[in-house]
Amino acid sequence: MVNEYSTVDMGENNNCNYFSAGELPPPALYFMMSLLFFWSGLFWVIHSEEEQGSTPVYKIHYLMAVLVFLKSLSLMFHSINYHFIEKRGEHVEAWAILYYIAHLLRGAVLFITIVLIGTGWTFIKHILSDKDKKIFMIVIPLQVLANVAQIITDESDQSDAEFRTWHNIFFFVDLLCCGAILFPIVWSIRHLHEASATDGKAAINLRKLKLFRQFYIMIVCYIYFTRIIVDLLQMTVVFQYAWLDEMFREMATYVFFVLTGYKFRPVSSHPYFTVPDDEEYDDVEVVTESGLTASVHRVKPHNRSAQSNTITIIEGNDDERENLIAKRESSHEYD
Asked: Which spans are transmembrane here (predicted)?
């Protein structure tokens, strides 16, 4: 008589690890990126200390260094956590907790730093307005909630009924946070645009205005790439290359950190630190631009030594103001 039931023992062997083909590179990737962020943070600290004698190093520069080191720690703990998952099939709870703590801190400090730079804190002003404080009260709790939702998503199986709900909550809240951090940058751009035409320091304010516009474009590109493009890449590539989305996300984050550090580095030639002395200006020259040179009104100085110390207030678009400033500066090279 033939037995109707038989027992079959099956085992999976993937080169003595528990990862699929698409999950093999991430541990090494996280470790290498951790070292890259660490050495970059160390370089930033050394550079800031070297420039401290000739250029003011603000608190925001040290906060940027803390952010880079938190990012490095987060990636290091993530790499160790993945290593134990690879070898044991489950993570060690202690390393997982350390990673989640570093991840939460890194996310909060990242958004705090972006908002502080966007509001011009310490660069343009030394205190936060009520409007800025409201942005902090909205953005930071939302970002913490987004990070908590991501942690719950990572710890849940994709087959769980709550997985899709938490995943959608994380994606929606994260986009809200990214949109909210753009508001202070827009306000700073508007403030500098108005100041460049009214307060007599047009050249300096125009350089600051251009810098904030570049920072705004960087933020938009970073958000668009890491939140949308990378997710689309994850859904389209075959499973052997599932790790590419993490690689592009970390590389984009590193490029964003490097560009932000370069734009706001503490150097003496930086437009943030080139602030003219108001006492040097004795008289005011008003130039109204409806065409290239529509009307010029000069206030006669009290003495000859003050003739070169004039303040220019220029109206018109940014290109016209910059062209006129460049012509005026070149005309005084041979004075």
From this structure: 28-46, 58-77, 97-123, 135-153, 165-187, 215-241
